[in-house]
Amino acid sequence: MNIILMGPPGAGKGTQAKKLVEKYGLVQISTGDLFRAAIKEQNKFGVIANYFIQYGYLVPDDFTNEMVYDYLKEHLPEYKNGFILDGFPRTVVQARELESWCKELGFNIDFVVNLDIPSEVLVKRLSGRRTCKNCGTTFHVEFNPPKVEGVCDVCGGELYQRADESEEAVKVRLDTYEKQTRPLIDYYKMKGQLSIVNGNQSMADVFHDLEAVLEDK
Ligand code: AP5
Q1: Exactly one of 18, 125, 130, 173 is catalytic; which is it?
Q2: What are the b/e assignments for 157-195, b being 16+ CB within 10 Å?
Q3: Residue 93's CB: how many other CB atoms inside 10 A?
Q4: Atom of ligand 1 nearest to the CA of 131
Q5: Residue 72: pLDDT band with limits 50, 70, 90
Q6: 152 belongs to a structural domain
Q7: How many C-alpha atoms does 160 have within 13 Å on its Cβ side?
Q8: Residue 100: count of CB within 10 angstroms of its CB
Q9: How far apart, in whole angstroms, are the C-alpha atoms of residue 172 and residue 168?
Q10: From CA 161, how far away is CA 129, in angstroms rounded?
Q11: Residue 189's domain spans which residues?
Q12: Is 184 contained in some domain?
């Protein structure tokens, strides 16, 4: 079961992907996480990505495609139950590239799910998010607070606010989403592959609807 999980910044892709990992034994492939790891390592992808991510722009397609292709090629044989692409593709160019890899590397995309959510909710979600420095678990100061403020429930690590969660960067990310990523919804709709889940409900209800989409097929 290979899934593309789409949705604007803050829609809950990472939150729901983690639940799918727990329930179905899938592997989450988050391009945002891959870029942040590359930035930490200061490798060639990290140096380029750092510039674009901090201001809220997409990393150019050729670098993104190269990084994701290398990653999939290396790790695909380990994915026994399938994977969730969280944050990829984000442009039509990336979607077309992914289709060519399906043939080359021998896998299918079984589900494309878009988390649908009004933009006014997103700013609140992004500005309240806190992420663990150590294990990457995300919380929300209001909607999903940690038991102890500033401390990760899972590993005890310190919680921080991401650099691209500043007001200016969030504005650019939402604008970039509208211009570059929203067209993908029509792209997958026209291919008859798109399922839509209401992302503007409780985390448990979103997951319930997501499961219904997957189990329906
Ligand atoms: P990335 O890390 O992928 O960021 P994003 O897509 O902007 O998504 P987020 O991680 O911000 O949000 P999410 O949908 O995962 O929401 P979450 O579950 O955390 O990418 C970062 C950057 O990397 C991009 O801007 C770009 O520069 C670059 N990049 C990545 N992929 C790329 C690509 N393919 N091409 C080019 N560049 C790329 O939830 C958000 C908050 O809301 C959390 O606090 C959570 O607790 C809370 N929450 C979640 N669900 C609910 C709910 N149902 N109710 C209430 N609160 C909720």
Answers
A1: 173
A2: bebeebebbbeebbeebbebbeebbeebbebbeeeeebb
A3: 15
A4: 44
A5: very high
A6: no
A7: 9
A8: 11
A9: 6
A10: 7
A11: 3-118+168-214
A12: yes
**Burial class for 62, CB neighbours closer than 10 Å (0-12, 13-18, 19+):** exposed
Residue 77 maps to a domain? yes
Q: How many domains does the chain have?
A: 1
> Is 147 part of any domain?
no
Please state the atom number of ligand 1 nearest to the C-alpha of residue 7. 14
Domain of residue 20, CATH code: 3.40.50.300
Q: What is the pTM of this model?
A: 0.94
**How far is Cα 178 from Cα 62, in angstroms, rounded to an integer?**
20
To the query of whether residue 80 is one of the catalytic residues in this protein, the response is no
Interface ipTM: 0.95
What is the CA angle 7-29-112, rounded to 5?
40
Q: Evaluate whether 194 touches 112 at the Cβ level (below 8 Å).
A: yes
